[in-house]
Amino acid sequence: MNAPAPLLRRVLLQGRYETMAMLRNGEQLLIAVILPLMALVGLVITPLLDEFTGSRIDLAAPGVLALCTVSTALTGQGIATGFDRRYGVLRFLSTTPLGQNGLILGKVIAVLSVLAIQTVVISTAALLLGWQPEIAGILPALVQLILGAGAFTSLGLLIAGTVRPEATLAITNLLWVLLAAAGGILFPTASWPDVYEPAAQLLPSTALGDALRSALMHAEFNLTASIVLLAWTIVASLAAIRWFKWS
Amino acid sequence: MVRVIDGVHLRAYPGQVTALLGANGAGKTTTLECAQGLTRPNGGSVRLLGQDPYEAGAGLRSRVGVMLQEGGLPQAIRPVPLLRHVAGMYQRPRSVDDLVDRLGIGNFANTPIRRLSGGQKQRVALAAALVGDPEVVFLDEPSAGLDPQSRAVVFELIQELRAEGLGIILTTHLMDDAQRLADYVFIIDAGKTVAHGTVAELTKATDESAGVERLLTFDARPGLDLAALRALPLEVHEAVPGRYTVAGALTPGHLAQLAGFWAAQNVMPAAIHMAPRSLEDVFLDISGKELR
Predict the structure, then answer these.
(1) Quick one: pLDDT band at residue A123, thresholds 50, 70, 90?
(2) A21, A25, A99 member nearest B61 (Cβ)
(3) Chain B within 8 Å of A105 (Cβ-Cβ)?
(4) Which of B155, B173, B202 is the endpoint of a domain?
(5) Which of A94, A217, B3, B70 is the most buried (most CB within 10 A)?
(6) Count of A–B CB contacts within 8 Å?
(7) Same domain for B76 and B157?
(8) Where are the transmembrane segments (chain A) (predicted)?
(9) Which of A92, A93, A244 should be substituted to probe chain B, the one whose Cβ sees the most B Cβ atoms within 10 Å?
(10) Collapsing DSSP states into helix, strand and coil, what is residue A177?
(11) ipTM of model
């Protein structure tokens, strides 16, 4: 009689497998690393951030790290899951000892692994451009990054599990652009029109951007932002559990 | 709630190939999904190795192999790394190298799955279902898209697995597959099991005393006057112009009369073929001939 490999081993195997799949995919690499790097350089060489207090690079680096989270957790992971669903991969793997829960845990590990790589690459580039992060803010920033990854992974799964993969592709790419431009990721919402600002505070993108700026510019843990991220994680996860279609 | 299946009753045993035979859309795949634990039925009961498959955990899943109709394979990866990945989920997997060798996967080992032909994908999906060394395998349309060589290899492997004592449950809409592979056949039509038995049982005449039903076909010039044959207790038709069918409990005497008929009409048939009533005839008798 056969037996399953231990749970931890199954989940780690799946995590490694999905991480490699993400890193091997050209389009995903573009949106996960190349575009964020271009955004970082763009924000440093243009005066876009000059209306805010702080040096360009100190404002830009936390925002680009937040953008990386959206790239990987929402767009990259969402598209991969959507197409795996189309091809029956989710159903096949859920009949193996990995199971549905193992599959989701594997995806979470993959998102965190890719995010770790992105963080190293972006931080190195930012340091070379003269970034001076608050050392005391690094731990709070890591906590907020993980909370953000949770919120955007749940949202990505919710989208990938409910609409066709082509629609997932369109929606998650569009969200990436919209949130980057007007979602409080790269640009603090403080200077925006009064009607928009309070609503924007409730976006997970604004919460993550603000949280990372608070941590890395002022060494503060932005509690409001972390509550917003947690709330999005809970709502999107519950919705995904309720509506996710495996086939 | 959609009632795709309602009234499916079946059982499968170790060391046997159990075939679910039915037209497309009859409910075969849905039946398998319930048995595999992928779908929770709204009613009825399902037991897989004594457990409820929908509620069961990794322990049960490690004893069951599944090949989905559409394959269920990731597209970007190559076959061998995929099989090694799946093998890692089990404590005692089968040897990936053996499976690769056995199913001829080595010939396309360096091609990503998305670029494989239908038959090549089928072989990888079969290997993925078997790599966990299961006690039970579910194969949804295992011969779909296979060329004759791959089909022979796959069928031989299925027969070997049966000899090893695996319980094999497969679906097919191809009578020939069922006839060649199955120990026991369930015919599913419109979400119900409408007949079941061994192939021999299903193709036997309904009336035992009548002997074995046979179907004889012959090709001759079109438009023969069949009146002389109508006296026989057989069904005689010109199915298509030039092709005639004679169905029923044929005896040597009937064949002599048939030969007499040809002599009288001065007909030399271009081809004559006779076989027991096939599973296809049974299937069409039961589920009707209309398209749905």
Answers:
(1) very high
(2) A99
(3) no
(4) B202
(5) A94
(6) 96
(7) yes
(8) 29-49, 61-83, 104-129, 135-160, 167-187, 223-244
(9) A92
(10) helix
(11) 0.90
